[in-house]
Amino acid sequence: AGARGRVEVRAVPGPPGAAIVDVAGEVDAGLVVVGATQRGTLSRTVLGTTAGRVLRASPAPVLINRRPDTKLIRRALLTTDLSEFSGEIFRRGIEVVRALAAGEEVELRALLAVRDDLATSPPARHSILQRIEAAELRPFLERVVPDGVAMRGKVRVGDPAREIMAEAGEWGADMVVVGSHGRGGVSRFLIGSVAE
After folding, report:
1. What is the pLDDT of residue 49?
2. How far is CA 47 from CA 28, 118, 182, 183, in A?
3. 85 membership: H or E segment, kind and range
4. Residues 6 or more apart from 125 whose CB is under 8 A from it?
5. Residue 177's beta-bridge partner residues?
6. Are 106 and 97 in contact, with CB atoms under 8 Å apart?
7. Which residues of the chain fall below pLDDT 50?
8. Is 72 exposed, middle or buried (0-12, 13-18, 19+ CB in 10 A)?
């Protein structure tokens, strides 16, 4: 693979998700890249997907690519819940986006999806969202975004997973960076995961 790294090919028996996670751990991977296919909801819920299994168990950040035709990242949406963990995800996400962009300019946007439904009129809601952005999101970005990196922030209200997907679609994001707190087992099955 030239001066930028080496390529090692392995054939590993067993379930693909577990094999990928095992190899990622063995080689101390800095990033795991997997493809994702669209399956029916029941099949995905009951069986899971290889990408979902890797996402839940990987020792390294996971890039799930649903659009193999995309060659250039022009816009990257980074999500946050304002936690310290989220700050680490932001820092790592910016590094990964910059590496994948290979020197090309990428527009970055931060999204805070607020779960609480604000039962207010549209003008009052807009004012509340502006205050959340100024009092919470902006200070978070000032702490975690490296100097010289331009990033705009936005706040949306509703179910975080739906709001992230809506913002990514409306804004035309080529990449979405989402952290996972590593909740597993029954709680993830019943509650779901924003990352998944």
Report:
1. 79
2. 28, 36, 19, 18
3. helix 84-101
4. 118, 157
5. 78
6. yes
7. 1-3, 42-47, 181-192, 195
8. exposed
Is the Cα torsion angle 135, 137, 138, 141 positive or negative in sign?
positive
- Rounded to whole angstroms, the Cα distance separating 66 from 37 reads 7
Supply the pLDDT for residue 70. Answer: 56
pTM comes to 0.71
**Token pair for 191:** 């509650």
75 CB neighbour count, 10 Å cutoff: 16
Please give the structure tokens belonging to residue 180.
């996972």
Would you mind telling me the total number of residues written for the chain in this entry?
196
pLDDT for 120-154, tens place per residue?
Answer: 666 777 787 888 888 899 999 999 999 889 999 99
109: which residues sit within 8 A by CB, 6+ positions away? Answer: 75, 76, 77, 78, 151, 152, 153, 154, 167, 171, 173
